[in-house]
Specification:
Layout (H helix, E strand, L loop, with lengths): L11 H15 L1 H8 L5 H24 L1
Length: about 60
């Protein structure tokens, strides 16, 4: 649970902005979206591997220049 301390006389918009930043930093929305539907561990591992291959290719292309 996230807690956003509000100072005396602080604007509600400022408190909402703090809450939004905290939620984004913690990754709460990303986690909720990923939990919406189940993905098999093998699919997760495959996607992670494909992303690693893609990033490695980008880095290698950068070094070749």
């Amino acid at each position: 649970m996230l807690i956003v301390p509000i100072k005396e006389g602080e604007n509600i918009e400022r408190a909402l902005k703090k809450l939004k930043r905290k939620v984004e930093k913690v990754g709460m929305i990303r986690e909720l979206r990923s939990r919406k539907q189940f993905t098999k561990p093998s699919v997760v591992a495959r996607n992670r591997r494909l992303k690693a291959i893609y990033v490695q290719g980008l880095r290698q292309a950068e070094l070749d220049k």
